[in-house]
Amino acid sequence: ESERSTNSPAPGRTGGPDVIRQEAGGSIVVWKSSSDVWSVSAQAGRLELSASPVIPVTGLAVPGKLWSVQTGGGFSRRIGERRRWGANLGLGSASDAPFSSSRETEIRATVFREFPGRERNSWLLFLAYSNNRSFLNNVPFPGAAYVFREPIPGLNATVGLPFVLVSYQPGKDWKLALSAFGPTNVATEGSARIRSSVWAYTRFERNPSQWLRAGRSNLSDRLIFDRQEVRVGVRSPLGAGVSADISAGREFRRRFYESRDATRSSVPKAELADAWVGLLRLSWRR
């Protein structure tokens, strides 16, 4: 996956650098039985700036290159109809100097339990920990959700605390989707079929990125790149299990700041100009 945003002037913004984001990731099932599934995953990403914006008051110059690397594994066991339990663990580093010390180590862990609800629905209980998310860092918090499986044709939803996932396909040629995680991460999308397997879509998204900057004086702080974007694009299979997603749009409310998490509104921010953005995503599935 590759994304590039090109700076352009906007009222009330200080200007700013061009931004290039590159990400790659995948997961594979390494062992599977009638009840158990073991999987491994890996992700890597880089954000590169053409110039380093300076956060006011603090005088911090944002590093020109920021990296994110993580590997992990997961296990789940089916113990009956709509009855499962499992766990996931991820270890890595998100920083301008990844793995340079334990201060830049990123840890994520989740345990979950699913059991039946009414009809085809189910309950999902979990306990999640992360030291690098956009809210409640270093807090193991419990969550609960209810999974709806087509209470009406085409509608599937997982509704709970602290997230919501909804997909609705009212007909064979239309889709709607909504996702939200905590108070800071949200995405909405509407898509339409334009050929047998080609879909056009419009998407709004806010998804702050965070890094554990090397040398920070307060270990609770995260370097955050927060922005919102609207894109239009096309998704299509290319053959042999490969598919492509090409989109373009506009990023706005772009800012860098250092804070405990992305919910803080009163910290100094380096405000960047709105920017045009283009994205190319290739995926492969066996």
Describe the structure.
This protein has 286 residues and is mainly beta. Helices cover 0% and strands 67% of the residues. The protein is built from no helices and 20 strands. It has strands at residues 2-7, 19-32, 36-49, 54-55, 60-61, 65-80, 83-95, 105-116, 122-130, 141-149, 155-161, 163-171, 174-181, 185-195, 198-206, 209-211, 222-239, 242-259, 270-272, 275-284. Strands 1-2-3-6-7-8-9-10-11-12-13-14-15-17-18-20 form a 16-stranded antiparallel barrel. Strands 4-5 form a two-stranded antiparallel ribbon. A hairpin with a 2-residue loop joins strand 12 (163-171) and strand 13. The radius of gyration is 20 Å and the shape is globular.
Topology:
Blueprint: E1 2-7, E2 19-32, E3 36-49, E4 54-55, E5 60-61, E6 65-80, E7 83-95, E8 105-116, E9 122-130, E10 141-149, E11 155-161, E12 163-171, E13 174-181, E14 185-195, E15 198-206, E16 209-211, E17 222-239, E18 242-259, E19 270-272, E20 275-284
Antiparallel strand pairs: 1-2, 1-20, 2-3, 3-6, 4-5, 6-7, 7-8, 8-9, 9-10, 10-11, 11-12, 12-13, 13-14, 14-15, 15-17, 16-17, 17-18, 18-19, 18-20
Mean pLDDT figure = 93
Largest sheet: 16 strands, antiparallel, barrel
Number of strands: 20
Instruction: Name the structural class.
Output: mainly beta
* N-to-C CA distance: 18 Å
Summarize the structure.
This protein has about 290 residues and is mainly β. The chain contains no helices and 20 strands. The strands form two sheets. It has a 16-stranded antiparallel beta barrel with strand order 1-2-3-6-7-8-9-10-11-12-13-14-15-17-18-20. Strands 4-5 form a two-stranded antiparallel ribbon.
